[in-house]
Amino acid sequence: MKNRRLTFKFTLMFAAFTFVTLVVSSFFSYITQNKIYKTQRDESIHYIADYLEKRFSADKDIFPNMLDYLVTHFKEFKVPEDFTEKDVEAGKLEFARLFAERHPGKVLGEDILFTELDDELKQIYTIAYLEFYTIMLEDAVK
Question: What is the DSSP string of 83-142?
Answer without folding.
Answer: --HHHHHHHHHHHHHHHHHHSTT--BTTTB-GGGS-HHHHHHHHHHHHHHHHHHHHHHH-
